[in-house]
């Protein structure tokens, strides 16, 4: 009997272990959005759940699928200045986490080599390991955690079949510039590898500058696909609505794979997704305000106890060094100590790769009432250091 490939422990293994030991924690470790979706999405969902015709397999309603893909294409083309074709360049997926595995399962057949910056979202690593691919890690720049392409050797570029990126970065919050993405596409064409860019947090942006889609780069559709999600922007993580956009050949392969192994998204979810795309600027604005309020409050209060945290430009994560008062601890030791003393759980940076050592990731996913309690407990921790 075949067994699942053993994978290395990551941030989520660490977090799950801690949660099993103590389920009465304030969880700022997982990027799980709090609160309910906007009423327009709930109303749409309720409306279509009442219909007798919307409870069958989602993929068999081809008219609905076409409308959904068109709404994605229209939004992408208007927002990111891309030229996506709804039929050729877009496929819906039951969440982008599933999409990562499915995409890689189409690409990794014979221990292909995958370039992944360190630190990165550990699901990328887990999926490659499960599929028996070979990971080539390369570091991020120390000043801004942008993937350091210069550190990839000529031999590694030639050997790689896939490059995985994330913008805004998880866990680093780093936003990849248009110029950076142009360089990536040039490298992909030169060395004949495929790029997977994860754009899951694109709408949670605290600046006036639009976050770039890799698919806006000339020729990107020849060598790249992009993951897009409504989970974080619309507070519908549990609905599992995501999209893979870009390279026609890979999108078609993913369509065929999904036809064989599932029956598409629940039809009322598809209707709700169309509503979301029609009102996304408004929905995103509410989400941005919610997370920015929490982030500004937490950063300001931590500054009062001497913990200097730089505000990210995007996403709902804070990526920061372990406070200098606790610098004798590793990131995992610090996270464990904080949990023990305060009941607050963060993510250790080393769980996202070796180059995340000494950092922690904090998810702003608790309401302000709880964030105020977090601050109270944390200030007491700084006052009562017991080590």
Automatic annotation (TrEMBL):
Record's keyword terms, sorted: Aminotransferase, Plasmid, Transferase
Pfam families linked: Aminotran_1_2
Recorded GO MF terms: pyridoxal phosphate binding; transaminase activity
EC number(s) stated in the UniProt entry for this protein: 2.6.1.-
Domain of life of the source: Bacteria
Presence of the UniProt keyword Transferase in the record: yes
Domain Aminotransferase class I/classII large as annotated: residue spans: 24-366
InterPro entries attached to this UniProt entry: Aminotransferase_I/II_large, LL-DAP_aminotransferase, NHTrfase_class1_PyrdxlP-BS, PyrdxlP-dep_Trfase, PyrdxlP-dep_Trfase_major, PyrdxlP-dep_Trfase_small
Cofactor section: pyridoxal 5'-phosphate
Similarity remark: Belongs to the class-I pyridoxal-phosphate-dependent aminotransferase family.
Listed name of the protein: Aminotransferase
Record organism: Melissococcus plutonius (strain ATCC 35311 / DSM 29964 / CIP 104052 / LMG 20360 / NCIMB 702443)
High-level lineage: Bacteria, Bacillati, Bacillota, Bacilli, Lactobacillales
